Amino acid sequence: MKTVTFVTAVVLAGLALPAFAQTSSTQRIDQRQQNQQQRIDQGVKSGQLTRKEAERLQKEQARIQKMESKAAADGKVTRKERAKIEQAQDRASKNIARERHDKQVRK
């Protein structure tokens, strides 16, 4: 019985390890996504973003998330993939700042 429990625990740990590695390899990307989402939400609440602007920014965030998912599908995000995702996040961050500080406001 102890052997079966031990083998089961080892197998479960082995299955969980790739999932843990995947999330830790994109931790910085995930944190940036979360921060940018908060900035969009704050812009909507404060009225700095119109509905159309918010929708456009949300679509951009979804595209970045799709890029990340595709890059992590094989279990490892390469340096080149990470750089491409971070460039997209940089553009998205600039777009958020530009849209939040333009003269358009939600009525």
Tell me what the structure shows.
The protein contains four helices and no strands. It has helices spanning 2-25, 27-46, 51-72, 79-100. Helix 2 (27-46) packs parallel to helix 4 (79-100) and helix 3 (51-72) runs antiparallel to helix 4 (79-100). The longest helix is centred in the N-terminal third of the chain and has 24 residues, at 2-25. The termini are far apart.
Topology of this protein?
Layout: H1 2-25, H2 27-46, H3 51-72, H4 79-100
Helix pairs in contact: 2-3, 2-4, 3-4
Estimated radius of gyration: 19 Å
* Integer average pLDDT: 84
Can you give the helix content as a percent range? over 70%
State the major sheet: none
Supply the helix-strand structural class.
mainly alpha
Report how far apart the termini are: 67 Å
DSSP strand tally: 0
Tally of domains:
1
Give start-end ranges of low-pLDDT stretches. 17-22
**Shape label:** elongated
Number of helices: 4
% residues in beta strands: under 5%
Q: How do the helices and strands follow one another from N- to C-terminus?
A: HHHH
Summarize the structure.
The protein has about 110 residues and is an all-alpha fold. It contains four helices and no strands.
Core attributes:
107 residues, mainly alpha
